Each structure stands twice: as structure tokens, then as C-alpha cells.
Amino acid sequence: MLEKLTGKRARLTVIETGAIVPAKLLNVVEDDMVFNLELRDSAPPHGKLIVEMFSANRHLLFPAQVGAALRPDTVSVRGIGSVVEHATDTDLNIFLAKVPVEFKLNYRTVKTFAVAGGEGGMAVELTEAIPAQTKMAITVIEDERQITTEGYVTVCHPRGKGFLAIFRFAGLSRVEMMYWNRLVRTA
Asked: How far, in Å, CA of 155 to CA of 124, rounded?
């Protein structure tokens, strides 16, 4: 299964410190995964990790143990537990850095972060679950630009101490789609 994810970005979260290291899966050899660290100033992680990735229709989370650092920008990781899979309805890529978003829910403004994005939607961190098919307007704040669009939550599932909601766009204007696609490619 993990061989199909070669080339996809992952988020490696160090359990002991909470440090988040973005990495790209380079290769899978038996039970070992080789990741390339994506940020130049990232120190190779040590100890136990939580690895988070998105496949074409799944959100994957699993515990892992760091092996040897093969080069200063590469690390070997071995899964140590079972993979927790949650179904998604879109192909998403993890962002290098979280992107601020805000939306109104039950007459209050919720400020949070998008952690992954794709052509038709994004994954948003939440502190409380939102029922599927909830329609809302959401604003993505990128540098000084704001992309405001409407859409709906398709899936919301537990993730750590919070929740992760998959938000699908109901439709973006041509200009908004241009900004969104650029954000997905560069983030």
C-alpha cells in the first residue's frame, strides 16, 4: 500500500516534542520508508513519530520509529503499529505550512488551519466535529489575499485530540481557482 504513496508529502510529528517535519516519501523497502526532509532548516527527527499522509481516497495515520539518517536531508522510518485509515473523497496534498482559514458556524467565527489541499477541496483542523453535508462559506487567508468560497463538509473524523474535516468547494470563480491552484502547488 505505501509503495503507491511514493512521491507524496507526509507530516512527521515527533511525539515527545510535538515538532512537525514536512517530508516527501522517496522509497519503501520492506517495512522501512525513506523520507526526504523538505525544509532546509529541518533537523532530522528522532524517536517515535506519528506519520500522516493522504492517498487518492484515504487519510492515513500511523506510529513509527526513526531509524538512521541516511543523509542530512533524508531519514529512514519504520512503522511500529497499525495504520489508521479514514475515507476521503478527494486527492489531497499536505501543505508545507498550515494555511489560516476562517468560517462561520452556529453564529460564531471559527479560526483554524487548512493542513492539506487539492483541486476540489481541503482538509481543515477542528476542535469539534462538524456533521457531513454542512454547508458554509469559508475564507482562506494567503499572504494578503483572501479566497472566500462556499462549499460543504463531506467527511469529518477524529485526528489526535481534535477532528479533521474534508471541505469540498461548491464552485470557485476563475480568479479564485487560479489563486487556489497556485497555493496548492507552492504550499
From this structure: 11
